[in-house]
């Protein structure tokens, strides 16, 4: 299940610090990028943002989740997309967390959990602490 726009706005309480977008615009783009990653078409707001940001060509490379995270990284002005491997990862399969790097382990961010095949809005530090079986040493 994809988080609602309201959940995105509530949990990402730092969206008001963005330079390019209002919090509402950012939440809409995040939600539409998640919908795109889940197999829906590109909606008008997302399409216009990718054109304005000059990232349209990147929507053709990588998986839908990778592309969506890249668009969200640009929209939310984060510091790139990062990956935390799971103990279950193999050369052929990812079960870890892909997330937008906010620069702080415990600041809520957009996360795609490959192991659970779902989107989350929380901090990656909390997930790693809670799930020691998947991420512990």
Any overview of this molecule?
The protein has six helices and four strands; from the N terminus they run H-H-H-H-E-E-E-E-H-H. With 137 residues, the protein is of the alpha+beta class. It has one domain. The mean pLDDT is 93.
Short key terms for the protein model shown above:
single chain, 137 residues, alpha+beta, four-stranded antiparallel beta sheet, 6 helices
Element pattern in H and E: HHHHEEEEHH
What is the rounded Rg? Answer: 14 Å
- Count, helices: 6
Largest sheet: 4 strands, antiparallel
Q: What is the arithmetic mean of pLDDT?
A: 93
Domain count: 1
How many DSSP E strands?
Answer: 4
Distance between the termini: 29 Å
Helix content: 40-55%
Residue share in β-strands = 5-15%
Shape: globular
Give me the side-by-side strand order of the main sheet.
1-2-3-4
Low-confidence stretches: none
Structural class: alpha+beta
Helices and strands in order, then pairings?
Blueprint: H1 5-11, H2 23-37, H3 44-52, H4 64-76, E1 81-84, E2 97-100, E3 109-113, E4 118-122, H5 124-130, H6 132-135
Give the gist of this structure.
By secondary structure, this protein is of the alpha+beta class. The protein contains six helices and four strands, in the order ααααββββαα.
């Amino acid at each position: 299940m994809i988080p609602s726009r309201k959940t995105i706005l509530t949990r990402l309480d730092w969206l008001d610090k963005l330079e390019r977008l209002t919090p509402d615009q950012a939440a809409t783009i995040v939600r539409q990028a998640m919908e795109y990653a889940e197999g829906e078409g590109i909606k008008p707001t997302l399409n216009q943002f990718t054109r304005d940001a000059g990232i349209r060509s990147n929507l053709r490379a990588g998986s839908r989740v990778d592309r969506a995270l890249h668009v969200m990284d640009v929209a939310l002005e984060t510091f790139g997309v990062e990956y935390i491997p799971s103990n279950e990862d193999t050369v052929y399969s990812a079960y870890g967390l892909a997330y937008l790097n906010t620069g702080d382990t415990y600041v809520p961010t957009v996360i795609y959990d490959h192991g659970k095949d779902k989107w989350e809005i929380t901090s990656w530090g909390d997930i790693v602490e809670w799930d020691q079986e998947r991420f512990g040493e």
